[in-house]
Design goal:
The complex is a heterodimer of chains A (298) and B (430). Chain A is mostly helical and 298 residues long. Chain A has helices at residues 10-44, 62-68, 71-102, 109-121, 124-135, 141-146, 159-184, 188-196, 201-229, 233-238, 252-262, 266-290; strands at 47-48, 57-58. In chain A, helix 3 runs parallel beside helix 7 (159-184), helix 3 (71-102) runs antiparallel to helix 9 and helix 4 crosses helix 7 (159-184). The longest helix of chain A is centred in the N-terminal third of the chain and has 35 residues, at 10-44. Chain A is globular. Chain B folds into two domains: 38-153 and 314-358, Periplasmic binding protein-like II (D-Maltodextrin-Binding Protein, domain 2, 3-Layer(aba) Sandwich), CATH 3.40.190.10; 156-311 and 379-429, D-Maltodextrin-Binding Protein, domain 2, CATH 3.40.190. Chain B has 19 helices and 13 strands. In chain B, the strands form four sheets. In chain B, strands 2-1-3-12-6 form a five-stranded mixed β-sheet. In chain B, helix 1 packs across helix 3 (78-91) and helix 18 packs antiparallel against helix 19. Chain B is globular. Classes of the chains: A mainly alpha (298), B alpha/beta (430).
Chain lengths: 298, 430
Amino acid sequence: MAKPKKKVTSQERNEFIWGWIFIIPTMLGLIILNIIPIFQTIYQSFFKTGDFGRGNIFVGLENYQKMFGDSQVWQALLNTVKYALMEVPVSIIISLVLAVLLNRKMKGRSVYRTIMFLPMVAAPAAVAMVWRWLFNSDFGLLNHVLGTKINWISSPDIAIYSIAVIGIWSIIGYNMVLFLSGLQEIPGDYYEAASIDGATGFKQFWHITCPLLSPTIFFVLITRIIGALQVFDLIFMVMDRANPALIKTQSLVYLFYEYSFRQKNQGYGSAIVVLLLILIMLVTVFQMVGQKKWVHYN
Amino acid sequence: MKMKRVSALLMCAVMTASLAACGGGEKGTADGAADGGGNGEKLSVMIWDNYQEPGLKEIIGDFTEETGIEAEVQVVQWNEYWTLLEAGAQGGEMPDVFWMHSNESQRYMSNEILLDLTDKAADSELVDMSKYPEEIKELYTYDGKVYGIPKDIDTIALWYNKTMFDEAGIAYPDETWTWDTLVENAKKLTKDDGSQYGIAIRNDTNQEAYYNMVYDMGGEIISEDRKTSGYDNPDTIKGMQYIEKLIQDGSMPSMETMSENGPDVLLKSGKIAMSFHGSWMVSTFKQEDYLKENCDCAVLPMGKESQRRVSIYNGLGWAAAANGDNTENAWKLIEYLGSEKAQQKQAELGVTMSAWEGTSDTWAACAPEFNLKVYLDMREDMVVRPYSRSTVTWENRASEIFKDVFIGNMSMEDACKQIAKEMNETLAEE
């Protein structure tokens, strides 16, 4: 398509230079904060790390061998996947419905939108502390109101669901805003035409909104799965170390933190996080391929 | 094309997000430590206890008045404290002056992260190393070099709810109590409907509870040379079995409850009749009206046969970064904080008991509602908190294994043997 040996005009050269100048800060940030650490982490996972990053000893695949035999890691993997499977679909469905409802002309629309988005503004640590108190089995509001005595966050059978509830609650607003922006890109003509043809609200939602919103849904889905697989702060803040349910709720990132920063075994911690990296890459590739079947780009 | 836009956006998202895990930890901590680094003017001081902050600020205020050197205190919670300090040590940006703890001191000293204070302490007019307890000094000495000046010492006492004892018609705990008395009375103080329990000890309440029992029974947690575990010692197991008895008697709240609400919370909400607390808790307890009205403290029970009444004790040290920009001033501050005058004031203000010999007596008067003298009495037979280079690793592992005993999946004896096995492996790697 491009003609060979086309003379570069000064404007083109200018654009080229300025283009680079504009993206360099972002690229530097990405390289220094993300790309280099990726390789450092992978590199580190082959070492038995010494104190304060000194005196690392190369141990080859030993960390990985240990990891594959470590039932804690598999349990954490299961917990992580379980959490993602709960958080992502439920939060997407709820926020999609909310977005559709709040996309109409109505009184107090911006107030509702703000309220829904508020959890996103609050610091995750503060959110977790409040929920920790709500869930408290002895003094918590939830048990008090319901008149029950359920160990929401310390019973190994249900703690992971309680954590997921917090996760869903905190992320709904963010998803909703993305969906709202997606909804506003859909031209109103489609709905008018559908109304004339006699399509009801639900039919319109299913046959117009969903397909036209599918790129946004896909974007939210893929970013949220990645985010959910990296869940850490909620578990870290809500679950005490003495909590008997910890083993059934700790995620891979939590385990990584435990080994890297508490037990100072950074080599092993890195191996765990490489496992997570591979998991995320696989899931993401799978989704990128699968999207061709259901995402409509006009 | 929209498809391309979304894909591009996604690629970025994948890259940034998948690495937040790796980069995140280091990034966050490095930022935190960066403003901890000195710039030649103000000294940065890092501690982990909110409740000590006001008192220490006052003492540091005196220091500024005398020397003109300003210092800023930053409080970082225990868990993040060590993450931050570690990242700071690795990145070369540490606070100028900070607290050291026996759990971590060995690693920091052996890697020469801390400023060598040996000569400075020897030449100092304010600091006299002979005035501090021998074993606390030892915590912050490595290869004959001094890396920390003792800040305080702490002991353990038994806290009890007077109202509950009165109601049950049981005499308050005193020096005649043995661990058997405690187990017996804990059962009596437990109500069947779950509204009140005798005592609360968590699987990780080591220093404050079960370490004391172990040493009273003649057992040990770690050998003298810190090379082997003491958990398989029959006497250690005997001590730990008091915990098992308390669990089996139902004298303690469920582990779930205790993990959500620690013994201190349960005590101040009137759910339990007894619990063990270190002297460092007093600064929070004296602000609780419920505790002032209903609770008091007593000496720990003793071992029946050994007649020993051990308190595990520990003490923090003031340390400085070896590569700080401000080591001269940092030393001046540490020297001041370690001096008799500042130590005296630390006790008077009720911050903590002080390390300097004979300065702690005034501390007991800081909360007249409580019989704090018992903490001073507990100093008669002290054992230093067990430690080695990898304390955190084996201590966490022990807590983890004890969980199974608390849930009832494992006997205490099996748990102790399991811990001994794993702990010996950890110690062998040190």
